[in-house]
Amino acid sequence: MRHEAVYQELRRLPPQKCVGGKMSSLAFDDTAVAAVTSRGGGAAAAPQAVGRPAGWWQAWRARFGLAEVCGTATAVAGFAVGYLQAGSLLAAGALATVCEAAGFYGCIGAKTVAAARRVTTHLSGLRRLASGAWHAVREHLASCAAAEVADGFLIRPGCLAGAAWLMRSLPGGVWLGFAVGKAVADVAWYGLEASARRGVAWSASVVRPTARESGP
């Protein structure tokens, strides 16, 4: 094949080549040199290393995975206590929402503080505190808070109590309804959070050029 012949010719070149009165090394290996020809004989092209972007699953797991586990565990506990003690699906849904928020945001808060400390190690005093607070707000708290306003007061308690009530006649229907209601509420929450996060990112991109233009 033609590209193999070209490759062999390149391999036979001497290891040193004089260019402009200076000696420059010329080395080839199996991965650095590749002669790629098209059907009619095209120009040689070197292979490009293209990094594989992380998928949405990896990004979600890194940001929310542990928090979701903590939130789900506390939501189950809150729903069980509310329903078994009060016998009311509304009370169970409300208590599950409060407990899930405590577990979820407790984990998010701990991770946010740790991340803010890592990115502000070069600062000290009030500058580090202010920079860490801004990092926490921009990266996590702003988008989560915007989603939680609608979720905590309306979407999640309504989904939990409503789905459990609709499925109460089925065997284990209350808990099946709890699972379905939580899944629906989670989809709504993550949609709101993603929309709010894009808005925060857009606002930050607008503020930075404005600050540069108004600077000295």
Question: Could you characterize the architecture of this molecule?
Answer:
Helices cover 72% and strands 4% of the residues. The protein is mainly alpha-helical. The chain folds into 2 domains: 1-51, no CATH class; 56-214, no CATH class. A two-stranded antiparallel ribbon has the order 1-2. Helix 2 runs antiparallel to helix 3, helix 3 (89-119) runs antiparallel to helix 4 (125-166) and helix 4 packs antiparallel against helix 5. The longest helix has 42 residues, at 125-166. It is elongated. It starts with a helix and ends with a helix. The model is unreliable at 17-53 (pLDDT under 50).
Helix content: over 70%
Q: Major β-sheet, in short?
A: 2 strands, antiparallel
Question: Poorly predicted ranges (pLDDT <50, ≥5 residues)?
Answer: 17-53
Q: Span from first to last CA?
A: 63 Å
What's the number of structural domains? 2
Instruction: Kindly provide the radius of gyration, computed on alpha-carbon positions and rounded to a whole number of angstroms.
Output: 29 Å
**Tally of DSSP β-strands:** 2
Residue fraction in strands: under 5%
Q: Which outline best applies? A: elongated
Summed over residues and divided by their number, the pLDDT gives a mean of 75
State the strand order across the main sheet: 1-2
Derived from helix and strand composition plus strand pairing, the structural class reads mainly alpha
Per DSSP, the total helix count is: 5
Order of helices and strands: HEEHHHH
